Fold HEAT repeat domain-containing protein.
Amino acid sequence: MAIRTLCRAGWGPAVPAVTGLLGHPHPVVRETAADGLVELGGPAVPALRKAAAHARPDRRTLYTDVLDRIRVGEDQALSAEPGPG
């Protein structure tokens, strides 16, 4: 699927379009977009925050859930890094 390819490649210009797909009517597309944005991590955060800020209250969790998944993934990566000495 194109979404996976763009996100795995880390292609930043795709972030707004992939973020927009979180509101797609088909669950598979929404899930793939969310997974791709999580894989992108930090570069997806500004677009997700902007989308969440402008979303209807009943749609806001589409974006904040992905932001939470990114934060958890980054926290886990930091805790897995070996400490000094």
Notes: The chain has five helices and no strands. The CA atoms of residues 53 and 60 lie 8 Å apart. Helices lie at 2-8, 15-20, 27-40, 45-54, 61-80.
